């Protein structure tokens, strides 16, 4: 469920079945965020977090668990966790926690600015007129594409390749996500429709 949810929101996810495999995967490559179930088979989530911190790695760690007692939460933070999400939880809460953790650790200088809009692609967050706008992964990726191509028309086909990859999405999904962005970005309108071709953000 976690893998499907995060993938649908635009994240690249690698799921593993137990703590030992997780540690082996971390030796090969480090993710931007580590989501750990406390009660994993073999090496549990707390032990994985302790091993990660003992190596001096600072990547954010989010624990998900059914254990909601105060001593359990304390144990999670003592093991090196940055956040602790108790099951059952709403998908929206998971995504908010993930965005918040990534926002804290985002590398400097990655924001894209255009007129009164700033986009932080790594945190899926935009700012316009002093207002913070929380975006989904797809919305953020599409807005980033439009901003990087400011002044040019981005065709629906190009947007599908860049944002949805090989997922076989219909061209109409681009229109749907542009509508989402327009609602969130507010007035004055920022994204223009180029009839029969695609969309653009004027310079």
Apparent shape: elongated
CATH class of the largest domain: Alpha Beta
Q: Span from first to last CA? A: 41 Å
Described by strand count, sense and barrel closure, the largest sheet is: 4 strands, antiparallel
Count of folded domains: 2
Indicate the mean pLDDT: 87
Radius of gyration: 19 Å
Q: Strand percentage, roughly?
A: 15-25%
User: Under CATH, the topology of the largest domain is which?
Assistant: Rossmann fold
Instruction: Give, in order, the helices and strands.
Output: HHEHEHEHEEEEHEHHEE
User: What is the CATH superfamily classification of the largest domain?
Assistant: Response regulator
* Count of strand segments: 10
Secondary structural class: alpha+beta
